[in-house]
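Good morning,

Attaching, inline, the backbone tokens for the sequence recovery test we're adding to the shared suite. The designed sequence is right after.
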């Protein structure tokens, strides 16, 4: 364990309050397809999520991102709201088909203008823009010729990165190439619960490598296009995996999911190699020799400045073949069940709901997973700073007749996870910031608008924004840089 740092000074006489170090970044996160709407405006053409959400049966209630939270038209109002909440940073994603509709060729300036105006508005309010280049909205034109299963898409992504860096490089200090490539590859091409909805294990593994390559190519482009002070990163939804029992079978199940869920990205990106056990577990599904070309891993492992961590809940696994009662949540990836596994080569692994409180997503509330994850990265990759780029919870929020939304469960979730971050930092982990998922209620992928993750309630029938109680609570934390103890039992801060 590295030396304990002294930042975690306790406040006043209240031992339950925790101060974060000066400069800790307090933000909130969103993604283009989940909030922007304006799906066919100003030159934007369909992404794979437009196609997927318009395919009957793919998204709950037939919901689509056509309008979403209408952020494209309401961004000034939303930035003003962020400012009122005292956010120091805002993590947004750029819609590829909005700025380069076919995924090839020249940019559409009206699309870039939206992001220029958004970042100018943020800066004018003293809010640091944090740009995600890819949060799943691949131009459909590229999917039509293979999408992430073909190598050329990595080159297209490098070209797109140059366009965006050219437009925003002078005003965005933090850049992340990909958001959760695990979802893009394994939910998009494995279980099919995400766009493009394909269920081909070999395609999922090819997509992994081409996403890794796209990340590496983009880092190279960013490095040459951006000021030296710019911070580059990738954002991963690393799974904090725990075996159901200490049996050899369950421990091997945990190893497998760690390989295909975590090290499939961590190792090539941070070590320049694919893990040997992953290659072995999947050798019957894909020809890695043919897939990985000379020099690819050098590109993929280009140095990054920090690692973005998205965390929601731990992952409890067992060897499904050893369970007489069968897996409790077979193949549940937390994003929707499927008859096809998102874990190629480890389809037999069963997923279990950990005991205790759950959120509206049926995700266990357990902040120790975040604590363990932060320490894992600090231990395995010393000197690599991290940011918690997503953490939050969906609850069945109720808008009262008085126009308020009391969400004490979300406050308790946020406080517990922030306390875990603080504890890891006090023990030496270098965490630079925390982004609440999400700023506002939005399109929750295959769940449509049925799950509310926002600190701000969105009445989608009127597009009215209503800060929930947790928004006010989070605003006080961000403003004071201090984590107070839990509010009174009745949820009042
Ligand atoms: C993800 C995405 C977000 C989700 C959020 C809740 O992590 O899946 O980055 O777009 O909406 O995590 O599932």
């Amino acid at each position: 364990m590295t030396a304990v740092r002294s930042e975690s000074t306790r406040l006043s006489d209240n031992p339950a309050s925790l101060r974060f170090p000066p400069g800790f970044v307090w933000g909130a996160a969103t993604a283009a397809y989940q909030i922007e709407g304006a799906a066919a405006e100003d030159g934007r053409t369909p992404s794979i999520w437009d196609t997927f959400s318009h395919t009957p049966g793919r998204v709950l209630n037939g919901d689509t991102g056509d309008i979403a939270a209408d952020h494209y038209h309401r961004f000034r109002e939303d930035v003003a709201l962020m400012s009122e909440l005292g956010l120091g940073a805002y993590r947004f994603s750029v819609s590829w088909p909005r700025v380069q509709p076919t995924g090839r060729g020249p940019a559409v300036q009206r699309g870039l203008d939206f992001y220029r105006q958004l970042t100018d508005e943020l800066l004018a309010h003293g809010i640091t823009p944090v740009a995600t280049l890819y949060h799943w909205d691949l131009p459909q034109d590229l999917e039509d010729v293979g999408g992430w299963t073909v190598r050329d898409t990595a080159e297209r992504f490098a070209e797109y990165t140059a366009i965006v860096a050219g437009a925003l490089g002078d005003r965005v200090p933090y850049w992340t190439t990909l958001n959760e490539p695990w979802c893009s590859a394994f939910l998009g091409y494995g279980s099919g619960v995400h766009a493009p909805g394909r269920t081909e294990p070999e395609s999922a593994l090819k997509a992994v490598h081409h996403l890794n390559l796209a990340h590496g190519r983009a880092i190279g482009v960013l490095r040459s296009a951006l000021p030296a002070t710019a911070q580059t990163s990738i954002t991963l939804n690393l799974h904090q995996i725990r075996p159901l029992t200490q049996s050899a079978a369950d421990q091997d199940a945990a190893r497998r999911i760690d390989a295909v869920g975590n090290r499939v990205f961590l190792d090539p990106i941070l070590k320049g190699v694919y893990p040997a056990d992953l290659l072995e577990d999947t050798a019957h599904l894909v020809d890695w020799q043919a897939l990985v070309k000379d020099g690819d891993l050098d590109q993929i492992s280009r140095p990054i400045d920090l690692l973005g961590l998205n965390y929601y809940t731990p992952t409890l696994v067992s060897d499904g073949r050893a369970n007489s009662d069968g897996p409790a949540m077979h193949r549940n990836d937390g994003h929707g069940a499927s008859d096809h596994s998102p874990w190629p080569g480890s389809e037999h692994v069963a997923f279990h709901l950990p005991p205790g409180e759950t959120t509206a997503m049926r995700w266990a509330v357990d902040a120790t997973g975040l604590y363990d994850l932060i320490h894992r990265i600090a231990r395995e990759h010393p000197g690599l700073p991290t940011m918690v780029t997503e953490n939050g919870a969906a609850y069945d929020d109720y808008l009262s007749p008085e126009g308020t939304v009391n969400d004490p469960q979300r406050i308790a979730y946020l406080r517990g996870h922030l306390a875990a971050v603080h504890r890891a930092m006090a023990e030496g982990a270098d965490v630079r910031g925390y982004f609440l998922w999400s700023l506002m209620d939005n399109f929750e992928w295959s769940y449509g608008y049925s799950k509310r993750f926002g600190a701000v309630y969105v009445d989608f029938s009127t597009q009215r924004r209503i800060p929930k109680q947790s928004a006010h609570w989070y605003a006080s934390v961000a403003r004071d840089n201090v984590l107070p103890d839990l509010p009174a039992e009745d949820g009042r801060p």
